[in-house]
């Protein structure tokens, strides 16, 4: 997929990786606008195509008392305002068939969560909106098996599809990234590496997912070296107080230097 088909995406001629970045979940309008504005400045500085990410709802929760959102329509309206205010594309996850047409009215890319990527009705519903569909690789799936999820989108008369690796289960409470999967998936789809979710430590006895944000740059660098098309990074200006996935998010104050170093690596890699 040529990412230039995504509405309002910039810097597509820069021969750079593209970036899906933002908070895990939409917590408020002020929070979303602040994060989007700061990432946009960084992406403009380093000529990185940027899609703002924010979940309008979090359905995959370990505990019933975990934060799930501020209200579907309210969060979607915020995503729409972010897109219109900064003239940038936006992406959000969907969890149920009826979410597809609803969210498609507000965002440019529909994302299928890793736990749900084998749900045919959900994938087809997303594809039938005509929006770009981002398929997160199941933690339980091989890279090669993702071609079947991609084919479901293609068979729904939608060629706007990409896949995102977010790690593979390693025992009960850890994930690993098998970088052999990047060239394998790039054979059949534009491929993104979800850096922050790959560093989760799920299934903790507390019911709150842990993480290793200290390894974010390590994973991101390896993705760029292995020619990944895009990076997915969740970021927040105060991860310790984020309402979802704070344990593995990147502190926003570190994003610019990370992107600077990654774009420098990309320049080197483009020579080979």
UniProtKB/TrEMBL annotation:
It catalyses: D-arabinose 5-phosphate + phosphoenolpyruvate + H2O = 3-deoxy-alpha-D-manno-2-octulosonate-8-phosphate + phosphate. It is found in: Cytoplasm. Keywords: Cytoplasm, Transferase. It comes from Psychroflexus salarius. InterPro entries: Aldolase_TIM, DAHP1/KDSA, KDO8P_synthase. Gene3D superfamilies: Aldolase class I. Belongs to the KdsA family. Pfam families: DAHP_synth_1. This is 3-deoxy-8-phosphooctulonate synthase. Its EC number is 2.5.1.55. GO terms for cellular component: cytoplasm. GO terms for molecular function: 3-deoxy-8-phosphooctulonate synthase activity. It is an enzyme of class 2 (transferase). NCBIfam families: KDO8P_synth (TIGR01362), PRK05198.1 (NF003543). It comes from the Bacteria. Pathway: Carbohydrate biosynthesis; 3-deoxy-D-manno-octulosonate biosynthesis; 3-deoxy-D-manno-octulosonate from D-ribulose 5-phosphate: step 2/3; Bacterial outer membrane biogenesis; lipopolysaccharide biosynthesis. GO terms for biological process: lipopolysaccharide biosynthetic process. Residues 9-268 form the DAHP synthetase I/KDSA domain.
């Amino acid at each position: 997929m040529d990412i230039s088909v995504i509405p309002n995406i910039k810097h597509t001629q820069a021969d750079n990786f593209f970036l899906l970045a933002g908070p895990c979940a939409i917590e408020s309008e002020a929070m979303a606008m602040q994060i989007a504005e700061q990432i946009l400045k960084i992406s403009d500085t380093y000529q990185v195509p940027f899609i703002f990410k924010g979940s309008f709802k979090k359905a995959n929760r370990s505990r019933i008392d975990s934060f799930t959102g501020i209200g579907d329509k309210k969060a979607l309206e915020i995503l729409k305002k972010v897109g219109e205010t900064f003239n940038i594309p936006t992406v959000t996850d969907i969890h149920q068939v009826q979410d597809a047409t609803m969210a498609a009215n507000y965002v440019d890319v529909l994302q299928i969560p890793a736990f749900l990527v084998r749900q045919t009705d959900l994938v087809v519903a997303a594809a039938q909106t005509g929006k770009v569909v981002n398929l997160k690789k199941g933690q339980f799936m091989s890279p090669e098996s993702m071609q079947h999820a991609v084919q479901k989108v293609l068979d729904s008369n939608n060629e706007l599809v990409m896949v995102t690796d977010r790690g593979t289960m390693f025992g009960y409470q850890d994930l690993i990234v098998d970088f052999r999967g990047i060239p394998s998936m790039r054979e059949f789809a534009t491929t993104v590496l979800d850096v922050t979710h790959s560093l989760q430590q799920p299934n903790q006895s507390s019911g709150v997912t842990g993480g290793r944000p200290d390894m974010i740059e390590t994973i991101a660098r390896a993705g760029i070296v292995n020619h990944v098309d895009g990076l997915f990074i969740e970021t927040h200006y105060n991860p310790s107080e984020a309402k979802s996935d704070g344990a593995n998010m990147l502190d926003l104050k570190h994003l610019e230097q990370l992107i600077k170093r990654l774009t420098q690596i990309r320049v080197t890699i483009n020579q080979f």
